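Exercise 3.2. Students should predict the tertiary structure of the chain below and write it as C-alpha cells, then compare their answer with the key that follows.

Predict this chain's 3D structure.
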Amino acid sequence: MIQRLSDMNLPRFPLLSENEMMDLLRKAQKGDIEARERLVNCNLKLIFNLIQRFAHRGYELEDLFQIGTIGLIKAIDKFDFSYGVKFSTYAVPMIIGEIRRFLRDDHPIKVPRSYKELVYKINRSRDKLSLELKRDPTINEIAADLGIDSEDVIIALEAVQSPTSIHDTLYQDDSDPIYVLDQLPLDKENNPGWFEKIALKEVLDKLPEREKRVLHLRFFEDKTQSEIAKTMNLSQVQISRIERAALHRLRQILSEETKD
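Answer key:
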C-alpha cells in the first residue's frame, strides 16, 4: 500500500500562495505551458490526498493518480475567476468527479491493461486536441496525434465500453431522444465496411439529396452527427434518423440489385 507521495517516486514541489496560484492560472489559460506544468506539479499532493478515499476499490493507486491528474488539468483549463473561490475549492470536485466517472465507466469484464493504457492516451490526446482545434477531434485526428492506426483507436475504445441497455438514451434535446436502439445496424451487413464493396457513386445517386449528403459527410468526411447537424442546421436527432433511413434505403437497393 502506498502511504506517502514519495512512494510514487514523484518529486516534491512547494505549495503555492493563492496569489501565485491565480497568476499561474491566468498564464496557463493563455497557453503558457510552463505555468500549466507548474500548477500540476504543485498540486500533486492534493491529488494524492484525494485518491486515498478510493484505496480499496481494487485499482492501483498509481492508475487513480493518473485519472486524478486529468481532473486537475481540466480544473486548470476550466477555472472561472468570476466564481471568487480558491482554486482548490474548484479543483477538488473536478478531481473526484473524474475518478468516480472512471470507476463508474470502467468495464465490468476484464480488459487487458494494454487497452486501458491506450484509452488513457486516447483521452489525453482528445483533451489536448479539443483545446487546440476548439472542437471534438475525429478518430483519424486522434490516431495521427498518437502515431497509430485509426482501427487501433476504435478497437481500444470499444474494448472498454460497458454493456448497456438498448433503451438507454444516447442524446436528448428539445425533440425526441436518441436511444441506443436507434444506432444499432439493421443487420451485420449494415455497416460502413460494405461501402468498399459497391459502386458508391452509382448507388448513392439513387438516394434523396439530403440522405446522400448526410452519408457523404458521415462516412467520407469523417464528421460526427453533431457536426453534421450544425452544418445542415438540423438537430442531432434528425441527423441520426436521416442516417438510419439512408442506410436502410441503401440496404434495400443493394438487395434488389442482388436479386436482379
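Discussion points: The first helix runs from residue 18 to 29. Confidence is low (pLDDT under 50) at residues 163-168, 170-175, 183-199.
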